[in-house]
Amino acid sequence: MRLSALALLLLTPCAAHAEDPTPPPVPTNVIRLFNHLPYGEANPAALAPLPSLPGCTLARDATYDLERLLAAARGEGIELGAISCFRSIEHQRRVFCAGPDNCDSVAGAALRARFIGPPGHSEHATGYAIDFVQRDTTCRAVEQCFMLTPGGKWLMKRGPEFGFELSFPAGNKQGVAWEPWHWRWVGRSSDTGPQAQAARARFAVAQASFPALPAVARPQTKAAAGTVVPAAADARPRGRGDYAISISRADAAILLASSAMRRP
């Protein structure tokens, strides 16, 4: 991908919700690209393959819960597969720029970004996201009809039990297209292990500003007086923040150049 093309993408305002006078709060130090939040790339040493899904790699703890999820669904006669799991930022560049206009025109990039994150702005790079697919169905992969399949309905009902939540529900305020197949792992509500905490920290901005639906219930802690309160209740970002892209060309070039090296 050419530097000039992506620099142009980075300089283009996000107008998907320009008509909304009160957009959700976004921290002032987070700049979104076509409404997508920035994400770094997972350390390869933290990833592990899925035995039952050849070619699928996720963060190690996420694979345990995913195997449990797949087994539970299979026990109810539902065969779920995956069309995409971890994707490196370089891989994301190839996916995002698959068409002739996706990276060489602002209009093409804006349209593409409605359905897929630009490189450096995809949850797949974290190693916690997966695109499910329903096997043995007429619904093609990454189509919204997935919601109507047995697998799609099952995930909406039971996905959070296994630590998975729907990143981009219908009508989400983030301005990203509804993706009923795209789920991210944040650990089960009872999981307080380091990997689950790392996943929740990675998605803290998304969870606070653009909640998943269905979402995994946040772990709870006891206050000094003995009352049970949601963990990190005061961590919700305050203030409107940067809703549209507004950075200089020099900053855009720096951001682009560093995107391939960004780590958690």
Task: Report on the architecture of this protein.
By secondary structure, the chain is an alpha+beta fold. The chain is globular, with a radius of gyration of 18 Å. Helix 1 crosses helix 8 (249-259). Mean pLDDT is 78; it is low at 1-24 and 221-264. The chain is built from eight helices and eight strands. The longest helix has 16 residues, at 60-75. 28% of the residues lie in helices and 13% in strands. It has a four-stranded antiparallel beta sheet. Strands 1-2 form a two-stranded antiparallel sheet. A two-stranded antiparallel ribbon has the order 7-8. The protein has helices at 3-10, 60-75, 89-96, 106-113, 150-158, 194-202, 204-209, 249-259, and strands spanning 47-50, 53-59, 80-84, 129-134, 164-166, 182-185, 220-222, 228-230.
Task: Write a concise keyword list for the protein shown above.
264 residues, alpha+beta, 4-stranded antiparallel sheet, two-stranded antiparallel sheet, 8 helices, 8 strands, 28% helix, disordered C terminus
**Tally of contiguous helical segments:** 8
Overall pLDDT metric: 78
Which parts are unreliable, with pLDDT below 50 for 5 consecutive residues or more?
1-24, 221-264
Strand content: 5-15%
